[in-house]
Amino acid sequence: MTEQATGAHHPQPRARTVGHSTPAVEHVTGAKSLIRSLEEVGADTVFGIPGGAILPAYDPMMDSTKVRHILVRHEQGAGHAATGYAQATGKVGVCMATSGPGATNLVTPIADAHMDSVPLVAITGQVSSKAIGTDAFQEADIVGITMPITKHNFLVTKAEDIPRTIAEAFHIASTGRPGPVLVDIAKDALQAQTTFSWPPVLDLPGYRPVTKPHAKQIREAAKLIVQAKRPVLYVGGGVLKAHATAELKVLAELTGAPVTTTLMALGAFPDSHELHVGMPGMHGAVTAVTALQKADLLIALGARFDDRVTGKLDSFAPYAKVVHADIDPAEIGKNRAADVPIVGDAREVIADLVQAVQAEHSEGHIGDYSAWWKDLNRWRETYPLGYDQPADGSLSPQQVIQRIGQLAPEDTIYAAGVGQHQMWAAHFIDYEKPATWLNSGGAGTMGYAVPAAMGAKAGSPERTVWAIDGDGCFQMTNQELTTCALNNIPIKVAIINNGALGMVRQWQTLFYNQRYSNTVLHSGTGEGGSEPSGGTRVPDFVKLSEAMGCYAIRCESPDDLDKVIAEANAINDRPVVIDFIVHEDAMVWPMVAAGTSNDEVMAARGVRPDFGDNEDD
Fold first, then answer.
1. Backbone phi and psi for residue 147, each to the nearest 5 degrees, phi listed first
2. N or C: which end of the chain has fewer CB within 10 A?
3. pLDDT digits over 48-101, tens only?
4. How confident is the model at residue 524 (pLDDT cuts 50, 70, 90)?
5. Angle 58-59-61 from CA coordinates, rounded to 5°
């Protein structure tokens, strides 16, 4: 488990009960007990595919009026859909698969959820308990396989253990630092007769997430904030997980410090707010990257000093003291030593920081950041985010994504795949509210967008959901559009189709002398850029999408851009796919090359900003 006993301030009893009491004891099968347990913990949606070992659970699920099962086309789609559901709703996502290949197909989305701290419960069938370890048909040690990528996992071989295990799985997944939990249930446990009663008694003696921060550390942090000349609020995804966005806004406006939100934290602080200086990192805004480098204090809230943010670690923020607040004590000091470590839930940490800073202000200790903001504003004006229109009149991918954001209804959810389109979606759509941006940040999983959008729409059917995908990503998981069409999940998909694995191609352009080895997607040789005969790209995404029950459009001209986006927004009775044929040479800027210092950020190709001499004052 992520959080272990740390000798912290709030010991919890060894055993506890959860949920609401169900007076009667029911005589049921283990499978029925599983479904009843899911009903009691509040699971309303399960994404999955039946198979031999999990099949006993599918019979009683058919009779449930509380649990909706959505039959996906691939178990990976089930896992990503459960993740998108969880990120959009704040509830625990649930996916289900059979033993062997069914379970191993969940490994990628489980790893993805682990990296991004998403509350997920994956339920898998296992061969009968007496056959475990015999290399039985469709047997895989999924508990062993997933041990490094789950917050915790369980192997259940007795029917009477099912309610307690499900209750514990949901509790672990959703408390402390959220994460995925796997429950592997032997087939004979599902088939056996047992009794069901609720609530069960939880027995998790070693699991004590610390939520309340230490008051002394809070006071020390507040003193550093008011003493600093160049502070930065470095905000990570933990602020969203803790539902602490309102508290963050209060803290930022109280201090007047600049705010930078990581890729996983977009929407935690309004993009339009005057204190927001952008997203940091390898492809972050120049102002955000440079602010971290020049800062004399970093207040890291629910962030983990990821390598994509820090660049070359030993050159990151060289003048800064660090206040690091995180609910997971293992993160503090892992990559960067903290001058003031704070273990606690981000919402409680920030609320306490507000009070502590107010106390400092009442004593006349108020930070003066006027010179700092003079620098920050100059950088913002000199190096804004932007892009060039292609000289040949073709579609700019940045313009496509920007217009989708500008024309979409309020409260739209955006799910992105991984690559250039992900970075453009992060930069050119404005995120004003939490739970509007879903992406695979830590694992960088291609194929995430379509199933994650499906899960988000299933969990929030009243909201518009756009998947911003690349032609490479789309070809990995587009089969879930069939699931969407058949289950009345009308997502909208924008394929940013440049005919290549765009981000890898960009690296080949910059670092491999334009040798495009196996990054061209519409050429049979994997080399060169020639179109197949007839000029039609393979596959034809419009025909493919129509075959899966979607409304599909192709857009190749800037003149048609607004019209086709408006047409997509107006259709809400089925999935919509737009194949945007965009210029293949567009690149993501700014950029910090892998392994280099953030001081070497490039605003554009061949353009390195000049910020003057670094000063440690």
1. -55, -40
2. C
3. 999 999 999 999 999 999 999 999 999 999 999 999 999 999 999 999 999 999
4. low
5. 65
- Straight-line distance from the first to the last Cα atom of the chain, in angstroms, rounded to the nearest whole number: 42
pTM of the model: 0.93
Residue 25 confidence (pLDDT):
85
What's the token pair of residue 332?
């503090």
- 10 Å Cβ neighbour count for 484? 28
8 A C-beta contact, residue 56 and residue 190 = yes
- 110 DSSP β-pair partners: none
How does strand 152-156 pair with strand 180-186? Answer: parallel
- Check residue 234 and give left, alpha or beta (phi > 0: left; psi -120 to 50: alpha): beta
CATH class of the structural domain 15-203: alpha beta
Q: Which helix (H) or strand (E) is 377 found in, with range?
A: helix 370-382
d(CA 446, CA 444): 6
Give catalytic residues, as residue numbers: 75, 137-138, 187, 503
> What count of other Cβ atoms lies within 10 Å of the Cβ of residue 275?
18
CB burial of residue 608 (10 Å; 0-12, 13-18, 19+): exposed
Pick the CATH number of 215-382 from 3.40.50.970, 3.40.50.1220, 3.30.70.100, 3.40.50.150: 3.40.50.1220
CB 562 within 8 A of CB 594: no
CB contact burial 454-467 (16+ within 10 A = b; e otherwise)? bbbbbbbeebbbbb
User: What CATH architecture is 397-581?
Assistant: 3-Layer(aba) Sandwich (3.40)
Domain 215-382 and domain 397-581 have a common topology: yes
Quickly tell me which residue has 């070693």 as its tokens: 206
Q: What is the pLDDT of residue 1?
A: 41
Taking Cα atoms as reference points, which of 159, 122, 163 lies closest to residue 38?
A: 163
Residue 612 confidence (pLDDT): 60
CA atoms within 13 A on the CB side of 477: 32
Backbone conformation region of residue 583, classed left if phi is above 0, alpha if psi is from -120 to 50, else beta: beta
| Tokens encoding 64 | 């449930």
Using CA atoms, how far residue 256 sits from 58, 317, 370, 523, in Å, is 55, 20, 9, 53
